[in-house]
Amino acid sequence: MAIEVRIPTILRTYTDGAKAVEGSGDTLDELFTDLESRHPGIRDRIVDGNGLRRFVNVYLNDEDVRFLDGLASKVADGDNVTILPAVAGGAGGRGAGR
Question: Rg for the chain (alpha carbons), in Å?
């Protein structure tokens, strides 16, 4: 058994279009290193020198890893990791709240 990683559309160019890939490791950091070995370039889109990139959200079994141990969060076979790009709102205009 492995760890399932759900890949957002914007990163699927690194996974040959796969919506989900499998990886292994004891921590989230090791998992992303493992993914990089099979999907070159993906790690740099998720992690920078300071940890998780500012506009990338990562969930471990539906828990935001920023509220866990970040890249040091422990992972195990059967876990699910979801990578989501952050979504920002636009400028005011017509619509809700007006």
Answer: 15
